Amino acid sequence: WLPGTDHAGFETQVVYEKKLEKEGRSRFKMEPEDLYKEISDFTLSNKKNIVDQVKKMGASCDWSREKFTLDEDVIKTVHNTFKKLSDDDLLYRGKRIVNWCTKHQTSLSELETKSEEQTDPLYYIKYGPFTLATVRPETRFGDTAIAVNPNDERYKEYIGKEVEIETNIGKNKLQVIADNFVDPEFGTGVVKVTPAHDPNDFEMGLRHNLETINVIDKYGRMNKNAGLIEKIDEDYKHAVKKCYKCESILEPSIMPQWFVKMQPLAKPIIEDIKSGNIKYVPENYKKITLHWLENINDWNISRQIVWGIPIPAKICEKCSEGF
Questions:
Q1: What DSSP state is assigned to residue 249?
Q2: Is the pLDDT reported for residue 21 higher than 60?
């Protein structure tokens, strides 16, 4: 049994932030080097306690081969893997929509979110000749299109045209697009498209080459939203993504991050599953796995935290926008 301990980057920093809060301090008012040193001392102290406890339990480990995930050889392996991902064209830095935690000020991968059903008001807003339903009227300043289903007879005459809408800062024109993502049964069958603040809208934006306008900052703040509310349904149930640590509602935001391309990695596994090389017991998990792999998104691997292994790349600060 080879013993080892994990520095647990984001998880450990969250625990230490709680300690700072109890002391009336904030990591955002600390120099990164000072915070790293404090978390390192905290982690190594706890690491010693863990090892001592495992030994007291009589675990039969080869302690001469103990590993810590911030050992120099482990960091070297991480750096080499990062380079290999780049050499294999599986790594890129780009502006894609990510899960942003406004409390911890970092992006999170899909695995670090949890989806919860909650009830919110559903606002019906007047958009030119349309009335559309949304749970996020505050993002209307970032709208770059209005979308309908291509098979919805009610709105076919508007597809491909521009319509004029009223806002509290004047008139604006939005293109009407047709996309199969739009559910004709939801609300009025018309949706506003805000590519910078919704993952589904982001994908629609890519498909239709729409502009992205960021109207919410990294602290979740924005200007006052517009009027023109036609009606509000108070009991609309929908799934909301939250941070798996602090349970803050995550703000979908477009920010420069590092991503691993997942589809090239998923493809050979999908082929193995479909060819029968991988057997499932029970069989229903095969369908679950295939659904996950066939709809997999690129993996956001960068975090805006101090503790852990830094991304081994140099970025022009002006180009990186602080990330």
A1: B
A2: yes
Separation of alpha carbons 26 and 215, rounded Å? 26
User: Please, which residues have CB within 8 angstroms of residue 192's CB and are 6 or more apart in sequence?
Assistant: 125, 127, 132, 134, 139, 140, 143, 145, 146, 147
Question: Is 4 in contact with 71 (CB distance < 8 Å)?
Answer: no
pLDDT band at residue 235 using 50, 70 and 90 as cut-offs: low
- Strand pairing class (170-178; 162-167): antiparallel
141: left (phi over 0), alpha (psi -120 to 50) or beta: alpha
Q: Return the number of other C-beta atoms located less than 10 Å from residue 131's C-beta.
A: 15
| Type of residue numbered 27 | R
- As a whole number of angstroms, the distance between CA 78 and CA 81 comes to 5
Euclidean distance between the first and the last CA atom of the chain, given in angstroms as a whole number = 40
Residue 186 DSSP SS3 = coil
Tell me what pLDDT residue 70 has.
97
Whole-number Å distance between alpha carbons of 233 and 133: 9
Contacts of 83 (CB under 8 A, 6+ apart): 312
* Residue 68 pLDDT level (bands cut at 50, 70, 90): very high
Half-sphere exposure (Cβ direction) of 41: Cα atoms closer than 13 Å: 5
